[in-house]
Queue: 4 jobs
Job 1
Amino acid sequence: MNGQRIKVIDSHTGGEPTRVIVSGGPDLGSGPIAERLARFRAGFDGFRSATVNEPRGNDAIVGALLCEPSSPAYDAGVIFFNNVGYLGMCGHGTIGLLATLEHMGRIQRGARVRLETVVGQVDAHLNADGTVTLRNVASHRSAAHVAVEAPGIGRVYGDIAWGGNWFFLCGGHGQALTLDRVDELTDFTWRIRQSLEAHGITGDDGGVIDHIELFGHPTVEGADSKSFVLCPGKAYDRSPCGTGTSAKLACLYADGKLKPGQVWRQESITGSTFDGRISVIGGKLYPEITGSAYVNAEADLVLDERDPFCYGIPRSWAKATT
Ligand code: PYC
């Protein structure tokens, strides 16, 4: 048979899909994961598009390339990517990755996996009940109550926070957060995203704010809040977003509304939930996020060079950010 074969295992975490590349991925050489990401982007971006974009994937899928770690301080390396580029970190993807490793028989319940990500070390535990708890990179709020004028919307206010990716977090936006309004919510948040860019509003060191989060009242019993999250390639997060929940926890802590150890249950637009809590060590805030993932497919992707869409259908309207 013609074509390169790539073995993948798919899962979803609270509805948001993750596709782990098990074999057949590009050879990115050795060294720190950030250097390997640079090689991935420069030399193998077609692989990214081929594995997550249509016709083999869709806009919501996050890919996870498992790599050898650069030092014995880690158990594995991982590079997350999506329909338009690369992610610093991915919370739902980390939960999906651990469920996948269990499915493969590579880890057992109780295992702790020290992951080398592009933005730092993330420790993930496969709990006895099959849920996964990840300890994210240090997170913080960079600016509070920032005003942005968005065309067709007017002035909106939000906090800018880091949770492994950059987020703009808005309450008081006047939008009903219901699943039947995904198109309207996507349009609303995309306008905010474009306005932030147009006005040069960024995270620290010019980091592009490529995730927009709206918060509202919860609908699931026991949840503290419900969110809608717009991802960099204009897809919405079906899960409560691990890095977004981390950013939210950093804002709550900065406002004196969350204490270390206190549980914050974040509901997604689909009704799935993550439990978040923080610890503060040496003045730095480390979010812990707990959620569940389910493996739903094992497949061989075939990349046949004769296929005009071998490397996916490009998302020409959406810019890569990371
Ligand atoms: O869970 O961190 C997350 C995430 C980022 C983008 C999609 N999911």
Job 2
Amino acid sequence: MARGKLIVLTGPSGVGKGTLMRMLLRRHPELYLSISVTTRTPRPGEIHGRDYYFVSRAEFDQMVANHQLLEWAEFAGNCYGTPRQPVEDQIRQGKWVVLEIELQGARQIFQSFPDALGIFILPPSMMELEHRLRHRASESEEAIVRRLERAKTEVGAANEFDIRVINDDLELALDQIEAVLFAPKEPLPETVAV
Ligand code: 5GP
């Protein structure tokens, strides 16, 4: 059986990665989305095992010590990581696995899986990103400021990814991602502006 493929989707907090992911999975149920573990508290509506596995810091540290995470990072005061076993199992079975992770984790994945396809989602502008983060209203002012600071660093690293997609219009952004995923023989465009 053909070996699977690893797809890394990264972009600043508030850029709409989660929404894009959900739309992509609805259109392509054959894709496998890795569910991360995190020490962050659940937001209203988030479900353990669907959005994340919500764990304590001690549980997270234990997973790190046991090499149960493929990559992990600290982000805005919380820890996030990709459980190793399910991803390796899916790849072995020839599945395409999608990781929706931040920059430090993406870099770790590119080191261990040089063939992984990196997609970076950009906001139309930093002002628009701030607006979206504040509109979400699920974080404290302090957390929003931390996320915005981090967003600047992440956007500065967009060139480390195979492609960049600007998320202005969700449908168009999704079309661009699909074009890259499902027409792999096409040369990869430098930047995909939508
Ligand atoms: P949020 O708290 O908004 O759900 O996620 C914060 C950031 O952590 C987002 O950029 C998200 O992509 C990233 N993230 C989610 N899961 C993981 C993971 O398993 N590993 C890493 N490195 N980042 C993750």
Job 3
Amino acid sequence: MSDTIFGKIASGEIPSEFLYEDDHCVAINDINPQAPVHVLVIPKRGIPRLVDAQEDDRDLLGHLLLAAGKVAEQLGVQEAFRLVINNGSGAGQTVFHLHLHILAGRAFAEGHMAG
Ligand code: 5GP
């Protein structure tokens, strides 16, 4: 668990509405949505950035992708959604507890950058 806002949300220390929860992660609506559907998948075990993940985190990282797919299905956006992980402040990461953004419900520019 990390001491960031997401660590506190994932542990329940800060009450939040979970759209999804399992043993390893939770999903919540983003407070400042960038698309009609903007959900964050947050692991209960905090890893600051993707590049800080270790071999031991392999199962958790796979789990987060599977959970994101389940959440997308639950939200009915399984045919068209984008997953984003911001790594480092230069890429726009503001909360240093690894999380996946699920974005859907609007057209996205083609290519690799969110926008
Ligand atoms: P990052 O920029 O680190 O990839 O993403 C952080 C995201 O968390 C941002 O999209 C921001 O709007 C969202 N966020 C920051 N604080 C909170 C919060 O307290 N609650 C929720 N639900 N979202 C938050």
Job 4
Amino acid sequence: MTPHISAKPGDFAETVLMPGDPRRAEWAAKTFLTDARLVTDVRGMLGFTGTHKGKPVSIMGSGMGMPSMSIYANELIREYGAKTLIRIGSCGGMQPEVKVRDIVIAMTASSLSTPSQSFFHGMNFAPSADWSLLNAAAKASVAQGISAHIGGILSSDTFYDEREDHQAALRRHGVLAVEMETAELYTVAARHKARALAILTVSDHLITGEALPASDRERSFGQMVEIALASA
Ligand code: HPA
């Protein structure tokens, strides 16, 4: 047991899918896994383990923001032996061609700061996806007829960002979308020799203001789970 996870040793699979929302973890485990069982529920952060096509897979919430993701990624990798962590979440579109409902696969994740920032003594570490997972997810999305955007994203510490044109320079440099967890997930995974990837659905758009209706969210979420399971 760890301060934030009540599972017993061996309760987690080496592959863990991580939506931000623990209720989404429950839905995905019950919908996509065979014999899914609850392995942890500390603070309501539900984690499940079952099998997919005969292989063990876990699905656990990460919470919102890099500090929360950092806690669960550290404990899953260091205490429970997780080797492949795939975030499945939502993001805000930052480029005109990145439309609401589209899927973004994060090759890199820029940030203003992460919980790991002081590790690098002022150098700018480039948090990046595991290549084998990224390649597999690109192929899995093509196989499912989905044209995913693959490139850089921003991991922000603020959802309600009122700073004027704060993201203009990143947009100019082709950053596709903004979310709040991936830069730290990639950094923690790199530090402990685990593989990580983030697959995201565009739930809202920073330029157009369009937002995905709640009724569409489950379908988009299901697509990400299928790509993640096919990639792992
Ligand atoms: N900002 C930050 N995180 C997000 C957003 C956003 O606009 N949309 C979904 N996750």
